[in-house]
Amino acid sequence: MKTFSEAVLIQVAAYFQVLAEPMRLKILNVLRSSDRTVGQVVEALEGNQANVSKHLRILLDAGIVSRRTEGTSAIYGITDPAIFDLCEIVCDRLATRIEAQNMFRASLTRRKTNV
Length: 115
Prior knowledge:
- The protein is of the alpha+beta class.
- It has two domains: 1-79, Orthogonal Bundle (Arc Repressor Mutant, subunit A); 81-115.
- The protein has helices at 6-19, 22-31, 38-45, 49-61, 82-114, and strands at 36-37, 65-70, 73-78.
- Strand 2 (65-70) and strand 3 form a beta hairpin.
C-alpha cells in the first residue's frame, strides 16, 4: 500500500465505516441495476421509509450515491460504479475465508466422530 497522509487515511476509514452497515449494502445492491426513488428502495427492501431515508442520507453525504429530483420524487443512483468492484473483492475474500473455516470445522467434527 502506498503511503498516505493522515488526513487521507481518516477519510478512507470514514468511507469504510459507511459501508460497514448491512442496510446500506442492501441499498447499494438495490441501486445496482437502476436509479430508484426512495419508495422503490423501501419496497425492494421491505423496509420502512424513515430507516431507508436515513441510510440514503448517509450514503449521499459520503458521496457514494447521488440524488436528483423529478417532480415530487427524490431519485437516488450510484455515483461511482467502482463501489461494486470493491464490494465484490471483499465479498469474494470473505466467502473464501468462510468456506475454508467451514471445511476446517467439518474435518474436526469428522475426526471427533472417528475417534
